Amino acid sequence: MPDFQQRFDLSSLTLRVAFGVTLLLVIGGLLVSIAAFAYGREAARSAYDRLLLGAANDIASSIAVQDGRAVLELRVSAFELLALAPDDRIGYRIIGPDGTTLTGYDEIVVPAERRNSRDGFFDSSFFGEEARFAIVTKRFAERTLNGTMQVIVGQTLKAREAMAYEITRQAVYVLIISGFAMALLATVVVRSVLRPLKTIAGGLRARDPHDLTPLNTAVPKETAVMIQALNAFMARLDRQMNSMRHLISDTAHQLRTPVAALRAQADLLADEADPERRERIAERIQSRSEGLGRLLDQLLSQALVVHRGDSARREDVDLRDIALEVFEEGDHRLLFPQKDVSLDVGDVPLPVFADAPSLAEALKNLLSNALKYGKAPIVVGASKKSGTVFIYAQDAGEGPDPETLSLLGERFSNDTPTRQSGSGLGLAIAHSVACAFGGTLELARQDGGGFRAALVFKPDDPGAV
Fold this sequence. Notes:
single chain, Beta-Lactamase, Heat Shock Protein 90, five-stranded antiparallel beta sheet, five-stranded mixed beta sheet, 14 strands, 53% helix, transmembrane, phosphorelay sensor kinase activity, HAMP_dom, transmembrane helix
C-alpha cells in the first residue's frame, strides 16, 4: 500500500485526474444503474398494472344477470393489450357472491387480506411463476342475484422485468457516452491547465544560468502564485550570490595589503643581521599579525551575518536578552580591561522578529568600535523611543565630525585619523543586520554628551511600546 501511495504521489497530474474521473464514473455509474433499475421496475409495474386493471374492468363490465344467473361474455379486447407481452402467461378468475368460481382458473388464490377488499393489486404465483394480479369487484342487487362478484386478472412478470432492464440499459448507455465525453473534456482541460507550467519551464530552460532577474511570464492567476514564489526564491538567491561576491571581494581586498606587508617584513627579518632592527621588525610582524587576526574575525563575522540573513529562521527576540548576552560574554574585560563597560536594560520586554545570533554579532561590532575608538565609560543596552525599540553601544566621546559620520557604515571606510587601523567592516556588518530585519543603523551624538551607535527596529508587538 505505501508503495502504491508513493507511486501515485509521483504520477502525473493527467493520470491523477484520469483516475479521479474514472473512479467518479464507476461510483456514479453504479448509483445511476441502481436508481435506473428501481425506476424501470416502478415504471413497468405502473404501466402493466394499468393494463391489468383495464382488462379486469372490461371483463367486469361484460357480466350481466339473466334469469337469475350471472352471464359472462368475454371480450377479445380485454386481452388484446395484455397480449403485447407474448412471453407472459395470462390468467383470470371470476368469483361469484357465494365464493364459487364462475369461470377461469381455480389455481388463482386471493390472499386472505384481499378477499373482502375492493379494487386493488396483489402478488402471487401462477403455475410456478411469479405473477401480478388485479382485482375488481362488481356488486349486483337483483331479486334473483344479490351480492358482490370479484374479477381477477393476472400476468406473469417477464415483460415487466424486460422493460425494467431495458430502461436500465438505456441509462447505462447514456452514462457510458457521457463518461467518455467527460474523460475527453477532463483531458483537454488538464492539458490546458498545465500549459502555463510548460511555459514557465521553457522560460527557465532558455535562461542564462547567471540570470536571476524576475520571471515576467503571463500566466493565469492561480499559477501566478508559483511565479511569485520563484521570483522570491531567485531574489534571495541573487542576494546570497551578491553577498558571496562581496565577501570574496572584501576578503581579497582586505587580505592583499596585510599579507604583502607580512611577507615584506618577513623578508627583511631574514636578511637583517642587526639584533635591534630584527627585534623592531619582529614587533611590526606581531602587530601586523594581530591586525590580520582582527580582520579575519570581522570577515568571518560578516560571512555569518550574510549566511543567516536569508537562511536563518526568524523568531521573537527580546532585545534586552541580546544586550545581556553580549555584556555577559565579557570579551571587553579581557581585551580592554582599562575601560569601564556597563549594562542598561529596563523591565519592559522589547520584542522584535529577527535572528538572535545575527543581532548579537552586530551588537558585538558596535561595542568593539566603541571600545577601540570611543571614550569610557561605555554603555551597552536596549531601550525604546517614539514607537521603536533599539539596542546600542554608547561611549562618552564626541564621535567623528559630520562629514566623516556620513561615510561610516560603508565597507573599508577608515577615513578618520582614529580609524586608520580599521577596515570599516564592523559598522557595515551592523548595517546589513539592521536592513535584513527591517531596521536601521543610527549613528548620532547625544544631547547629554556621548556618541551612540544603535540598531533601531519596529517592535514585533506595537502594543508593548
